[in-house]
């Protein structure tokens, strides 16, 4: 095991703080799950006259509740990750600098890359523990139905990949910083810039750059094939990546209980486009019933669950692109971080002279 | 030579920390680096430990270029900086085991290595003590043990006695001598020059980024002052013959003749000294004692700094104020009370 990671974990788990935080985390996740279940059940009761009745109504309601609970949990987890990871990783390198131990590591047989990887491991090991502790709760939506193990794993995977990316970027900020406060502030600014910035870009791309009428839609045997359009900003958005990996965008509004992902449905469906593949089985009235082809953030073309099976998305899933983007950003951040702490440095040259972090 | 510097240059922005500095450290020596603040001592040490790159010149540590293969150099070098980096809540044993792991010592070998080192620095009874609770002297010894964890041939100690009480200084000094006897080459910088006196076999005087004098201590004294004070005790009644030989010698001045001894200033180093002894013996003078009363390191240091104050005025101040902020980013050199080098 990487000695830096081992020492940090040893240091971290020796105090009472870690088990306390772990307990609070599991408790909070339990509360979120319970509340999500209660809210979803109430909503389902309102939607259906008699949810407790046996038959298809109750099955559909349970599936819908399952999805709602999973989506709520995953959203809660990714938001928690975005809050916790920067704080953990941002102090990693600058903390060594402030304790005057960085030079002791640099003079050892550890390469700069191994020091950075050790730091990333230690920051993520703790987060991983928190995620693993939450895993039993994620089984509840599977038991309720409407959610597959694949949905859970894909969503969890995207949360983990986001944690790695945010951790790597925060480490890079830490390597550049000269004070703990500056590093923590910088890490949160970058995290907000990545997440909120990506959302801002999506809003701009979806609303401001929307073409008047592209004429992309065409009627095929009475059914409109919607070409939609590519929304490039969805590729860089970690939340959209997670949503895309763990759910079907066309599903959000047709459920008995509206998914918390619902707000993202408009851009997701617009980007996805759809192509009716088995026209004989389409029921046009389903489209009319749920709002037809109106546009808007959260009010995009909607297809009912009955017709969904017969409609194929035109564009591929977003999450592989998000995954690629996040992997690229992670590698770039880690490479830059190890370059910053690498010694000895070659003499600086002209334009490529790096800005140097300043010790206190 | 375990350390070879040839015309090494290093600058921080507009401030030249090393200007064509050339240094040689023989295997098995205890080399003292002395010089005023901002002279370039710490910069030299950081280059030796592959923590800092050079801008020009040639450096070889055990035949390896530290800029090309820093990890190989670090295998041969143990470095003890002038600060003690500490992790919260680690015991002395864990502290050393961690650094043993960073030096890639096999897990099975670590406990024995750590135990041996704790015994060497006389901290066996503090093995389970929280590092934070150790006294400064103990921390210095633990720091020395950390620098020795991978059994390096060359030890680089930056101000090791700084902040220690007299007893701790004596202990550290004995430890350094012992390590030298065990075959290690040691480079040591200190502002407490009396600590280096009698400890170092060799000396390098660093000033304004240049090595002004280098060699064994007597050579350096001779280079710095150009002369040495000698006390000659004559056997029998040959005092007049001895005086006659000395007065006829160009390199001898300031004679003081006593009943059975003569004190005088001898210009030159060991060779002149040996030649003069041979000449005296040749003239039938029985040499009972030949003692070089060289200038102390304190005197050397004062001479050097006085010279610097006269010749360069503000330059040293510029070096002192400008270097720490520039050096720190690369290698996290914290300014000492006196300022970084």
Question: Would you kindly provide a written description of the structure presented here, covering whatever features stand out?
Answer:
- The complex is a heterodimer of chains A (about 350) and B (about 350).
- Chain A is mostly helical and about 350 residues long.
- Chain A has a domain at about 5-180.
- Helices cover about 65% and strands about 5% of the residues of chain A.
- Chain A has twelve helices and four strands; from the N terminus they run H-H-H-H-H-H-H-E-E-H-H-E-H-H-E-H.
- Chain A has helices at about 5-15, 15-45, 55-100, 100-105, 110-145, 150-175, 180-210, 240-245, 265-270, 285-290, 305-310, 320-340; strands spanning about 220, 225, 275, 310-315.
- Chain A has a two-stranded antiparallel sheet with strand order 1-2. A two-stranded antiparallel ribbon of chain A has the order 3-4.
- Chain A is globular and about 65 Å long.
- Mean pLDDT of chain A is about 80; it is low at about 280-310 and about 350-360.
- With about 350 residues, chain B is of the alpha/beta class.
- Chain B folds into two domains: about 5-220 and about 315-330, 3-Layer(aba) Sandwich (Rossmann fold); about 225-290, Alpha-Beta Plaits, CATH 3.30.70.100.
- Chain B has twelve helices and 13 strands.
- Chain B has helices spanning about 40-50, 70-75, 90-100, 110-120, 135-145, 165-180, 195, 215-225, 240-245, 270-280, 295-310, 315-330; strands spanning about 5-10, 15-25, 30-35, 55-60, 75-80, 155-160, 185-190, 200-205, 210-215, 225-235, 250-255, 260-265, 285-290.
- Chain B has a six-stranded mixed sheet, sandwiched between helices. A four-stranded antiparallel sheet of chain B has the order 11-12-10-13. Chain B has a three-stranded antiparallel sheet with strand order 2-1-4.
- In chain B, a hairpin with a 2-residue loop joins strand 1 and strand 2.
- In chain B, helix 3 packs across helix 4.
